[in-house]
Structure formats: structure tokens, C-alpha cells
Amino acid sequence: xxxxxxxxxLIGRAAIEADRNVLSQHIIVGELKDGLSTxxxxxxxxxxxxxxxxxxxxxxxxxxxxxxxxxxxxxNARALAxxxxxxxxxxxxxxxxxxxxxxxxxxxxxxxxxxxxxxxxVKTDAGQRTMEAIRLQIGQMIAExxxxxxxxxxxxxxLVYYRNLIIGLSTVLNLAVLLWSYRLISGESTARERAAxxxxxxxxxxxxxxxxxxxxxxxxxxxxxxxxxxxxxxxLTGWSHQEALxxxxxxxxxxxxxxxxxRVESPVDKVLRLGLIAGLANHTVLIRKDGGEVPxxxxxxxxxxxxxxxxxxxxxxxxxxxxxAAEKKLIEANFALDxxxxxxxxxxxxxxxxLRTPLTPVLAILTNWEVSDRxxxxxxxxxxxxxxxxxxxxRLIDDLLDLNRIVAGxxxxxxxxVDVHELVRSVLTIFDSRINERQLKVFAGLNAARxxxxxxxxxxxxVFSNVLSNAIKFTGREGNISIRSEDxxxxxxxxxxxxxxxxxxSEILNRVFKxxxxxxxxxxxxxxxxxxxxxxxxxxxxxxxxxxxxxxxxQGTQFTVVLPSISASALKLPTAKDPYIVTRQxxxxxxxxxxxxxxxxxxxxSRLLREKGYSVQAVGTVGEALKILGERxxxxxxxxxxxxxGSGIDLIRQVRSVSAIPAIALTGFGMERDLERYRESGFDAxxxxxxxxxxxxxxxxxxxxxxxx
Length: 709
What we know:
Elements: H1 2-52, H2 58-80, H3 86-113, H4 115-123, H5 126-212, E1 216-221, E2 226-229, H6 231-237, H7 241-244, H8 249-252, E3 254-257, H9 267-274, E4 278-279, E5 284-287, E6 293-304, E7 310-319, H10 321-356, H11 359-371, H12 380-408, E8 416-419, H13 420-430, H14 432-437, E9 441-446, E10 452-455, H15 457-473, E11 480-488, E12 492-499, H16 506-509, H17 522-525, H18 531-541, E13 545-550, E14 557-564, E15 581-583, E16 591-595, H19 599-611, E17 615-619, H20 622-631, E18 636-640, E19 642-643, E20 646-647, H21 648-656, E21 663-667, H22 672-681, E22 685-688, H23 693-704, E23 705-707
Helix pairs in contact: 1-2, 1-3, 1-5, 2-3, 3-4, 3-5, 10-12, 11-12, 11-19, 12-18, 13-15, 15-18, 20-21
């Protein structure tokens, strides 16, 4: 019935709307005819004036001019409302404006130059042609509106027909619904009788279920007295059903706190008091009838009548002994796992220190030889080869530590504005000697307009170095490598590193970003398979993506890095500065206290620093350092962390209590938390072993240098 009424209402409203539309079309036709009549009136007034020269004949012209603006405005409003063709109305408006212009021109000529001048314009027949065009245009628009009027009239007639049809069908349907409702009510009465029998059967089934359920179940009445105990509850409490029947729940369900041994409020009492579901806290123990104790877990809920009133409580509880034992084992396993993790971190830190420290004097000497004019040029290539291999060893150590940071979720980024193009160029410079050695052709098409990102330059350089190093390693002599940058969609920068090297099969591509996974012969190419796994983690940390593609073995490989870029309008570039650093002080005026217990490292670093002109005093313990600092002043403190009688942290904390001397930490412990501790303890800078001597000089110049011009 409701659907029929709604349909009748909607169709009736549509019929009324159709009638309104018919009326509206009649009005529009009338307005078009009025507009044509008004233009004719204006033309009649103009002719009277031209012939007579009497201004009183212009009165019909003025009245028509006022009306025509109103008529055109009304028609224009209908065009904007979609009731008229906007294109036809625009053309009509232009024709009327043209006609009014012609009338005004002839009137002005009659006034100024007389009838002959005005008649010259009239004789051109321009006004007549315009008037014919207006008649034709209005005629077309009236014809179109009459066509719309016909369709609207037909629609109104059809809607009235459908409304009457729906009224008839709705009446028939409503009678059918009434008949169906009668049969439904009759069937429902029969179903209720069957449901009553089913409720009785379900009650019997519930009693059987509660009796056989695995958890202990206790039912009480509204006074908290026991009305039912299933077999599991009887076994757990030590009370039989007959013994417990009618007793207060607190007498049978006697519970205490395992730790305090104090009595715990019964969940039955809590449910009856609050009318809500209640459960026990942890460490609750049930005292059995025989005095034994059982750890339990339980929950109680009110039993409600259909009207909402409480008629009792159902309490479900279970033996918690096995789960408690399992939780204890789990806690012990977690403690053991934490201890193993700490031991692993300590081992990695110690391994890092022991592997890095011997490399420090080697790298320092090789770096010094490489930039020294006194070293024979014929051996320069050998020195560079040795230096690269030492740095490779350090890189392998860093990769192991980076992997540990990634697994522990402790990879940190120092974000700043980074020019990716400059970073790629610097990486190419680093690998220049390897590229030349293998006679590779490298093309860099860095064409992206948005080539700035918010990122950690050191970590991004690590990513690009890993990708380029792979390209160089797996591309044959005289092969080709291309690096291209493009602006990607949605404000992202895309970098593509492509080579024509050995390529990768599809099964290798699936695991290229997994740690310790390699798709080539390790003996032939070397490496531990960490570089790309670390690169993916670093790119992910920058909210970017890195992917690998290859056509197969021998088809080359392409690595694609996508990073969020920064638009030119958002850039706030730093003021350009000279990249060179010159010392503000003469090195001979800078005195350095070097605290290093590794004799080779101390000897080599002292010698190289003295060759640069610095005054250096080397000691090997915390005690010696504090003693000499108390006797004389130094410009700079450079200290190892692991020392025989303490640590560099102990040393800097005591130094900071009395002095603000600049301090650099030299460490073989490269874990992230270690570097944070050094900064927090008071060191101004940290260098991880093996220390590149050029990097050490640059760090020293940060304290005693100025930008040179």
C-alpha cells in the first residue's frame, strides 16, 4: 500500500510538473512574440520621426526601446536557466542590438543632417535585412518551443494515464496483500505452537550441554545461591551437585589472591551488585573443598529475563595451571631472547671494534701516500688499489652493522635538502678510477627539473654507490652504463641505472633485495649480498621505491629508484659558499692531545698530523690523558673509545666538567646507540674506524677553519 501511495504521489507530482512545463512553454512563446512586436514598434516610431521630423513621433520608439530591454533580459534569463537555446538567444540578442543600432543611427542622422542623410542609410536595406533576420530567428525559436510544448503536453497526458493505471493496480495488489497477510497470521499461530515445543527441547539440550561442557559452569539464583554445577565444576571445586545445591556461591567458589593470600570478591556478588559481566584478576586461586589450590580464570554474567530483570548468574571458570606454566616458559624464553640479542649486539660491537682498529693506520698511510707529492707516481695505482680494498673491508663491516640496525628498526636519517643530481655526480667521481680501469662508457642524462629531495645525503649516496658499484662489477670491459633522471608523476623523481652487463634471470630478480642473497657465483664476483637489501631499506625509509628489471642472462640490468621530489617553488636553497676550507690558524699553533691505546694507530696518526704541522701529544690511557690535561692546555682532544683503564666516554665526561675543549671521538664501535652515547656524553664529532686521514683533517678544520674565497 505504501509503495502504491508513493508511486501515485510521485507520478502525480510529475504530471503537475509537466502541466507547469506546458504553461511555461506557452509563456516563452508569448515572450518571443512580444519581443518581435516591440522591435516592430521601435521601427514604426523611427519611421514616423524620419518622415515628419517631429520629436513626438519618437515617443513610441522610446517606449519600445524600454520594453525591448526588459523583454531581452527576460529571454536571456530563460536561456541561462536552460529553458531556451543559449546559442539561439545569443544570436537573437546580437540581431536586436544591430537593429537598435541602425534605428539610433538613422534618428541621429535625421537630427543632425536632415532626411536625405538618414534615407541614404535606409536605402541600403541593412535595417530591413536585419529585421527579416530577427523575424526568422524568432520564428525558429517559436517553432522549437512549440515542438517542446507538444512533447510536454504528450508527457502530461501520459503521466495522467499512468497515474490512473497505478491506482487500479495498487488497489488490486493491496487486496492480494491483505489475503496474504491473513494466511501468514494463521501460519504464524501454528508456528508458535511448534516453537513452544522447540523451546522445551532446547532447554533439555542446554541442560545436557552445560553438564557435559569442558569448562566448569556454575548457575546461581538472584540471591547468589547455587542452582546448578556441571561435572567439570564439581571436579574442580571438589563439591558434588547435591552438596552444593542451595549453598551460597562464596562457600563453594572460595577464591583468594595468590600473592597476598587475601580473599577476593566473588564475581557472582559483583555481577548481582553491578548487573554487568565481571571477571577475575590475574593470580586468582580457587580453594577446593579438600583445601587444595587451583589457579583459575573465570568470567561471570547475569542471567536476564526477557524484560531485562536479573534472575541469576552464570559463572564459567577453568583450570589455569597449564596456561600459567606456558606463560612462565614464554616469559623465560623472552628473557633468554633479549639476553641473546644483547649478546649479539655486544659481539657485533666488539667485532666491529677489533676489525676496524687495525685498519686505521693502514688507511691513514695509504691516504697520505695517495695525496703526497713525494710518493713515486709509478706506485700510485697500487696505493689506490690498496686503499680501495681497505675501504671495502670497512664497507663490509658497515653493511653488517646497517643490516643489524634495519632488523632492529633503529635505522636513523639526518634529513636535509639534497640535490640528487649533485649526489649522483659525486658518486661518479668516487668510482672514476674503477670506471677508467674497466674502460666503461658512462652516460649521465640528468634531465629532471625537480631534482631536490628531503633526505639523508650520506644514506642516499650509499644507495647510489651500491647500485653503481653493482653495475660496474657486473658489466664487462668496454661496456656501457647509463644514469638518467626524469620527473615522475605526482611530484616524484625517478632515477634509472642501466647497464649491458651479465643481467639476471627472473628467479634472481625475486630475491635480489633479500639479505645474503646473490644471483651470481660468489667466488667469481665476491660480496656478501647485503648492499641491495640495505639500499631497499634506506629507500623505503625515504618513502621511495627501488626495483630491478632484466631481460635475462646477458641482457643487462636496470635499477630504478623513485623518490618524493620538491618543487622549485618550495625550495629554499642555501647561499652558495666556496667549497674550500682554509685554516684560520697556523697548524703549528694548534696543539692536539691524541688518546689511542693501539700503538700502530697512535704512531701513524701522530706522525701524519705532525707532518701537517700540528703539535701532537699521544697517550694511551684515561689516566695519562687527565694527568697531562691538568698540566697543560691543548687546542683539540682526539680520543679512542676503548681504552685500557676506562673509555673515551669516561674521559670526556671528566673533561667536560672543567673544559669546553673541542673533542673528536675515534671509535671502532659503529652501532647506532654507540654513536648516540658519544654525542650525549660530550664529543663534538665522531669518526668511525678505519679513519680516512683526509676526513680527519676536514673534521679538524670544522673547529679551526673558515670558508675561503
